[in-house]
Amino acid sequence: MILVADNLRITLPAIGRAVERLDPEPIRQMVSACMNAGAQAIDINSGPLSRSPEEKMTFLVRTVQETADLTVVLDTANPRAMAAGLAAGSQKVMINGVSLEPVRLKRILPLARQYDCDIIGYLLGPDGHVPTDASGRMEAAVALFNEMQTAGISPERIIIDPVVAPLAWQDGNRQNMTVLEVIRTLPDLLGFPVRTIAGLSNLTTGAPDPGTRRRYQGAFLPMLVAAGVSMILLNVLDPTIIRVAGLSQRIAGRTVFSWQ
Amino acid sequence: MILVADNLRITLPAIGRAVERLDPEPIRQMVSACMNAGAQAIDINSGPLSRSPEEKMTFLVRTVQETADLTVVLDTANPRAMAAGLAAGSQKVMINGVSLEPVRLKRILPLARQYDCDIIGYLLGPDGHVPTDASGRMEAAVALFNEMQTAGISPERIIIDPVVAPLAWQDGNRQNMTVLEVIRTLPDLLGFPVRTIAGLSNLTTGAPDPGTRRRYQGAFLPMLVAAGVSMILLNVLDPTIIRVAGLSQRIAGRTVFSWQ
User: Helix B210-227 crosses helix B239-252 at what angle (to 10 degrees)?
Assistant: First the structure.
């Protein structure tokens, strides 16, 4: 299981300022901290980058890859920023992501084919909403997988994100049980060992304090690991959560166990 | 999900002495502590009670039921002690348990029928060993469920314990993934919403220290809850573990969520 840091967000003031000024130092510090905490990949959550998207995304990708040997996950809805990031990156670049929304399929899928890179498909319907029941999520997963393959994406390149629901949503807990079911059953349903990813921080959107956030994430994370998720997008700078990730993997591992 | 305290063990010196002397006070203290910690049932782990089994088990059951309104889980391999416990108890008594071992089937099943009480069936083969692979556990579950029904036990009375493996066992982690699978799939396999139970403390047999024990139990517990286990036998006097049980249930709940 691969831990993907979700810590590099342009909405953090220090990161936002660094991107505006093309100042690499705050980015480097964040990337180093994530790598030291155990991240194997890092999500560049750049937002839409409405001004100078190419320049800014190129700066971000180069700064990250000069700092650490981490897979870079390009997390932007802006196709121009995405294209620039892919052009700037070395081999270890991933697209985050595409969904059944027609505009995304049309603008993003060709980039994935052109650069032959991993691409995350997340389970939103064509209307941009999360299907709320299990069958809707399963149908969306199958439709998206097929759509991506039809566009020439190799199944090995596809990573499905069933979209963790905030617990504070009505039915959020029930929806997340469906998320686990999708992760567990999708490979069988597709007849292909498709990889999956889940975003843990989403679970606790609206939580009243960091302790509550940590406790709920720490209880949901083992459920994701037991379901067989391939990658988790999470706050790698929380040592408690990283410890739970390690414990869960040792419990669920296929390897010989040791207490460490 | 029901939390069953596994704290009342005759192997604890204070409890062992109290049973020898028929001194109710140490028993009462333990039972009160378990109830206050959130237990809804309590396991009386009395061991074989080779001397005066009837007198001692009667004393134990009466003391527990005079102290608290908890379901009493009679955990002894001695059929004479079991019979005495059932005779002494009020309605809220459960047998722990029976397996495919012929001597247990023969001596314990008639008691369950006679007292029309809940009974735990745990997944050991006829030779007394835990089946090590998934299909062996599934076969044992189906065979045991059928055997119990054939003996006149109503399916509503049956609770299956797939036997959590110590992580320190060779293949313990792989076996526990099978335990989760049994819990998740058994109701479908049997075509009946059979209840399940898991013993959490077993996971960390041989753990080097209490912190390690707590951390591993705290990561496995959410996996059990997500799998849909009906009852968990655990150390209710560990507040961390009880907190994780609550978090896990709120995450997996079918109810409207609140952060509490």
Answer: 20
B168, B225, B251 member nearest A176 (Cβ): B251
Residue B202 identity (one-letter amino acid): N
pLDDT given at position A253:
87
Asked if A219 and B255 come within 8 Å (Cβ–Cβ), the reply is: no
Residues B142-184: tens digit of each pLDDT: 999 999 999 999 999 999 999 999 999 989 999 999 999 999 9
State phi, psi for A252 to the nearest 5 degrees: -90, -5
Q: How far apart are CA B216 and CA B110, in angstroms?
A: 38
Chain B residue whose CA is closest to A225: B223
Which residues of chain A are within 8 Å of residue B172 when distances are taken between CB atoms? 257
CA distance B44 to chain A (A): 29
Going by C-alpha positions, the residue among A210, A192, A193, A189 that lies closest to residue A201 is: A210
A23: left (phi over 0), alpha (psi -120 to 50) or beta: beta
Task: Answer whether 0.90 is exceeded by the pTM.
Answer: yes
Which amino acid is residue A237, in one-letter code?
A: L
At B106, the amino acid letter reads K
Tell if the CB–CB gap between B220 and A257 is shorter than 8 Å. Answer: no
Which residues 55-84 of A are in CB contact (within 8 Å) with B? Answer: none
Please, which residues 113-172 of chain A have a Cβ atom closer than 8 Å to chain B? 167-168, 170, 172
Identify whether the C-beta of residue B206 lies closer than 8 Å to the C-beta of residue A206.
Answer: no
How many residues comprise chain A?
260
